[in-house]
Write a structure and sequence with these properties.
With 316 residues, this protein is an alpha/beta fold. It has helices at 19-24, 31-41, 48-60, 73-84, 106-113, 134-147, 158-162, 166-180, 197-209, 228-245, 260-273, 291-304, and strands at residues 62-65, 98-101, 119-124, 151-155, 184-188, 214-216, 250-252, 286-288. The chain has one domain (19-304): Aldolase class I (TIM Barrel, Alpha-Beta Barrel), CATH 3.20.20.70. Strands 7-6-5-4-3-2-1-8 form an eight-stranded parallel β-sheet. Pathway: Carbohydrate degradation; 2-deoxy-D-ribose 1-phosphate degradation; D-glyceraldehyde 3-phosphate and acetaldehyde from 2-deoxy-alpha-D-ribose 1-phosphate: step 2/2.
Amino acid sequence: MTATATSRLPDVSGSAFNLRSFLHGLPGVDKVGVEARAASLGTRSVKTTAKAAAIDLAIRMVDLTTLEGSDTPGKVRALSAKAVRPDPSDPTCPSVAAICVYPAMVPVAAEVLAGTGVHLASVATAFPSGQAPLDVKLADTRDAVAGGADEIDMVISRGAFLSGRYDHVYDEIVAVKEACGSAHLKVILETGELGTYDNVRRASWLAMLAGADFIKTSTGKVPVAATLPVTLVMLEAVRDFRAQTGRQVGVKPAGGIRTTKDAIKYLVLINETVGDDWLDPDWFRFGASSLLNDLLMQRTKLTTGHYAGPDYFTLD
């Protein structure tokens, strides 16, 4: 499928570095091979105690998300409480990794999450289009961090990337990373709009070279969101990037991941592609809203032997 380059990366900040040449010099993606590999791994099954552990791990990896124009403070408070105690009737149920909201809702979520260990993520930089001047994107980011966000999910300018203005995209990510301060930066590639797996690989490397802490598939606002083959390409990119730089970068598929079966497919994909180092909420997240309830229903089934009713868990 892919070839891992053996040479060390050149100095990106050096005047001799040509970002376009580097990105177009990356090994091409074998489309048939990637899709066949992803399909094969997607048939693996996980049973009994291993399934219970996988469900708890998946819960711990969820970025519980609400990104609607109709979001209210009450909804965000309720969702934040659910992030901390997903199943109030079961104290053994783990918390999720983070809650993800719009910048205006960050202070509301911050009140509920203070001291809980659950991260507070906020989409910024003119989410979901990314079509705004850089100073607006930076102000958006700084406001979210000032409000209490410790993770920022930014969107790249797909128009700039697709027209080959890689330096423009790179410079924006660098600037947003600086505006994040100590907050982690997740860079959303919006892979459904990139067109090819080669572009997904190029965008992944571009984001990592610019300082991304995570690379993320999608906003969830376009028809094609996360897929197993795209996530496989991104996992291979972070694996190869660490091999060459020594720096580990996380991956976050988002959009369209709704069932426990879906989540377990991604966990298998991680295990078989990059190994245990990424099987941790610090390095892999699910961007999801409806996934958590299905995980909770499956968890209840394993614990009690029967499914909870569809109205047992809160609807988000």
